[in-house]
## 1
Amino acid sequence: MASLQSIYLPSLLIVQEYIFLKKQSAMAYNEHLAERIKQNLESRKIKYIEKKMFGGVCLMVDDKMLMGVMKEQLMARVDPEVDAPKALKRKGAVTMDFTGKTMKGFILVDQEAIDMEEDFDYWVAFV
């Protein structure tokens, strides 16, 4: 007759692995970067709503997705006609290409390109 340990231990290990993987996927974006953005908005008294999407977090102002974090990149919404051409010339900036389709007016910025506060401030100023 099998012991209770031999019956329940494999199931327990599967549950523990599931919980571990859920925690890993829940932290699929740079939380420190998200906090930097939120602190900046709060310091300027800008009210926002935080929503999880794109495997990251988006910050919405007046029901519009304006900033966010996807993995290790900052996501910024810019005016596609006025601001995007100049913004895309900055170090680490690329047009957001989600699901193979370019999202007009959205730019992803590499973490290294916003390490300096003045570079970070450039991007959050669009809000």
## 2
Amino acid sequence: MGRPPYEPTAQGRRQVEALAGYGVPHHMIARIIGVAELTLRKYYDDQLKDGEAKATAKVAQTLFQRATEGRELAACIFWLKARAGWREKQPVDPATMPTLEQLLSQSQQRITVVAGIPIATEAHAIDAATDAEARAQT
């Protein structure tokens, strides 16, 4: 005589749905309720799917509320990236990018060299000269 067929309970269904919603892996849920993972999927498939879906919906609702109320900047940023396709960096057109030689040429033109040592950009060199003149006058 074999083992009697498994009979899921209402409490078991609620527990499985809650655990799935919390993100507990299926093999752990099976261990918690005392069944094989195959049995879990056979008898609680709807609860596994519903738990995950309901939890995702709840988190999405909370994120949406926080983003639209302006309470959390991170929620706003996440929503725009995940749902509106926003990115932190804009795509770059390689055809309009300067070459390495052009970048090096521009950077060399902006650096002031004293005794063979690069010390400042042109703007900083002008500020330093103005500061030196001001100190000399005092």
